[in-house]
Amino acid sequence: MLLKRTADHSGKLMGYDIPAGTTIIPNFHAVHMDPTIWPEPEKFDPYRHIDKEGKFVHSHKIIPFSLGPRFCPGEQLARVEAYIYFAKLLQKYKILPGDQPPNIDGITSVVHFPKTFRIEQR
């Protein structure tokens, strides 16, 4: 969930004037899909997060739970729940590619989710 913020004081951000009191809603999807940060962001490439020894490389470019002193207080619980959820899902189902490469266009609102995908029971 992305919580809105309010600017405490006036300032400039990327050339834009931000008056005090302005409501700001972070767009983490835009950051994660920025080609100046990630080459080919629309391409699924787990190797961009794995070093030569096959170990996960932590990156400050990945911000699914926000940043700073007001980051998501439920991050640890969310990670554990996601692990359990996907472990159970992958025990029971094979997630297969469709006939064509998946379309990652989605609907952005409070969350961004893909329009369609296919799941087949094991």
TrEMBL record:
Its cofactor is heme. Pfam families: p450 (PF00067). GO terms for cellular component: cytoplasm. PROSITE patterns: CYTOCHROME_P450 (PS00086). Coiled coil: none annotated. GO terms for molecular function: heme binding; iron ion binding; oxidoreductase activity, acting on paired donors, with incorporation or reduction of molecular oxygen, reduced flavin or flavoprotein as one donor, and incorporation of one atom of oxygen; steroid hydroxylase activity. The keyword Lipid metabolism does not apply. Keywords: Heme, Iron, Metal-binding, Monooxygenase, Oxidoreductase. GO terms for biological process: organic acid metabolic process; xenobiotic metabolic process. Gene3D superfamilies: Cytochrome P450. InterPro entries: Cyt_P450, Cyt_P450_CS, Cyt_P450_E_grp-I, Cyt_P450_sf, Cytochrome_P450_fam2. Heme binds at C72. Belongs to the cytochrome P450 family. PANTHER family: CYTOCHROME P450 2U1, CYTOCHROME P450 508A4-RELATED. This is Cytochrome P450 2C42-like. It comes from Phallusia mammillata.
